[in-house]
Amino acid sequence: MPDRTKFVPLWFLGTLAVLVASQVVRLWQTDPVLWVVCDYSGRLGALALLAAIPAARAVAYRPERLRTSWWETLLWIIGMVVFFCTFCQWIGQVVTFWFPHTKLGSYPILYGWFYLFDLTVGLVLVAIQEEIVFRRCTREIFGTHWGQGAAMILFSSLLFAAYHWTIGLGGMASVFFFGIYAMLFLRRTGALWPLIAAHFLTDFVRFSGMF
After folding, report:
1. Which one, of 187, 210, 191, 186, lies nearest residue 84 by Cα?
2. In angstroms, what CA-CA distances link 68 with 40, 81, 169?
3. Distance, CA of 25 to CA of 69 (rounded, Å)
4. Cα torsion at 165, 170, 175, 180 (round to 10°)?
5. For residue 147, what pLDDT band results from cuts at 50, 70 and 90?
6. What is the mean pLDDT of residues 200-207?
7. Cβ contacts of residue 180 below 8 Å, gap of 6+?
8. Which residues contact 22 (CB under 8 A, 6 or more apart)?
């Protein structure tokens, strides 16, 4: 029988605490630069914590081999962008229509070089941090106890949606279905880097105004 007291490692709880703390501080920022600094600090702090603890580092930063062909991997990447920009956005709008006042914060409007930096380097950081924490780590932790099936996929996606608590129920619904696709993507390909690339492209399309 598995030891339920070790169901969620302390290093994972600590990582979540760092991320949530930065979100809380971020809510009170009215200056766009300070908002982004808080956001980056939380994400970098979480990645640093994972790197500093050996047990966490063994999970978060272990190398993995791609199990799918290049063409199938590319289809998964394109599929993620299309899925988010169509179904996920639609479901988010529907939920927002019924629950319009659940949003606590919004992304700041940036200009000039800082906007370009955030649209490139910033979104790469977002993709790396969120995929390491909410895909690789959650798959390892919850998959150990629940296997690689529906329970692990649904719970990890719920946790990913809860992490986006500041953007309202509509945004959380959108992120929840994104998380399901992302975990299926990881389970199929076996490697995290294609998922990071797909996550970045999805956010780039969204925040650049292409969609």
Report:
1. 210
2. 32, 19, 34
3. 43
4. 120
5. confident
6. 95
7. 153, 154, 157
8. 38, 39, 41, 42, 43, 45
Distances in Å between the Cα of 63 and the Cα atoms of 60, 124, 170 are 9, 19, 35
At which residue do the structure tokens 């629940």 appear? 146
- Treating both helix axes as pointing N-terminal to C-terminal, what angle do 193-208 and 70-83 enclose, rounded to 10 degrees? 30
Which amino acid is residue 146, in one-letter code?
Answer: W
Which tokens belong to 197?
């690339």
pTM passes above 0.90: yes
pLDDT, tens digit (0-9, with 9 covering 90-100), for 125-140: 999 999 999 999 999 9
142: tokens are: 């919850």
Q: Which pLDDT score, from 0 to 100, does residue 145 have?
A: 84
